[in-house]
Amino acid sequence: MQKGKPFGRWLMILAMGMVAAVAAGCGQQQLEERNVALEKQLRESLTQNADLQAENDGMRAKNEALQSDLDRARAQPQAAQQATGKPKPEFGEGVDVSMVGDTMTVTLPDTILFDSGKVTLKGSSKQVLDKIAGVLNRDYATYKIRVEGHTDNQPIVKSKKLWQDNWDLSCNRAMAVVRHLVQKGVDPKRVYAAGYSYYKPVASNSTPAGRAKNRRVAIVVAPR
Q: Is residue 24 pLDDT above 70, yes or no?
């Protein structure tokens, strides 16, 4: 029996070694599985982060584009004001005001000012011209003023007895506006009338809409 004890201890040691090896093997497998799981989570996190970064870049680009549009919208009236150092005036519906450099042009359709074929100012048009005269006297007191009369290319028919041609009509309409501005205090030394007939169109005379745009009076205000 004594001789069998060393063999039994050897078996016990061998068994313990096998248990330790199995335990180590299990621990290694668990560690590898855990590493695989962590690597998967890391890849998923990196993918989500890339998606969020792309979305953030897209939102930033949209915000920059919107800000750029807003800056341009704000700059347009400011640019007009900076050109002359004066704000762009408003004279009511239908009256167009454009500013190029130091020159301001106020365009009034003939329907605001006159009846068809006439040169007598409508009562309602005088209120608009009064506002224009006020701005000219207040903000443009040293500027020269050219009042232009324009027509379409249709020959004079209904008012044939009154006007020889479109030259005649355009000049007389410009003069009517000049006289009213002078009555409202505009210095006659700095204002004059010019008739262009139908030779400076802003639209095609081949359509009714285009002819309507061409029938106009333009008040051009520029430095001396």
A: no
